[in-house]
Amino acid sequence: MQTNIAPPGLTDSDFQTLKTSALRARELSYSPYSKFRVGCSIMTESKTCFLGANVENASYGAGICAERTAIVKAVTSGHANDWICLAISGDAFDTCISPCGICRQAIREFASLKLPIVMLNGDGSKCIVRTLQELLPMSFGPEDLEKQ
Ligand SMILES: [Zn+2]
Q1: Parallel, antiparallel, or unpaired for β 83-90 and 49-53?
Q2: PROSITE patterns given for it (predicted)?
Q3: Would you list which residues are annotated within the binding site for substrate?
Q4: Which residue of 13, 31, 62, 148 has the fewest C-beta atoms within 10 A of its own C-beta?
């Protein structure tokens, strides 16, 4: 299901700002090996957007995804638990990309399972919105460590 309707908690203007910033974040990508740029934008309650992009490495395993780059920037700027939406875009023009498994878990650490995740294609003409719960069912999070 594709949608261009703003997720709960976002105005149409917020939604447009978030999508545009996720598309532009790809310009920050360092991806000489895959040549596949990914951008991410995390919007906070104050409507600040933290941008991230994939940063690759000659030692491939040392690379980091756009989502985790944005997460690190948000968290180290004092925004660990006030996210209202996250959007990603990739250089795939026919399809919307979705966060990898590691990134879904990384998002889980800081966000509500209701967090809307906006997945865009390369020019933003296609858009799919799912909650973190839908992308990461039966997940393990910080509260599970307290159930011992
Ligand atoms: Zn990832």
Answers
A1: unpaired
A2: CYT_DCMP_DEAMINASES_1 (PS00903), CYT_DCMP_DEAMINASES_2 (PS51747)
A3: 54-60
A4: 148
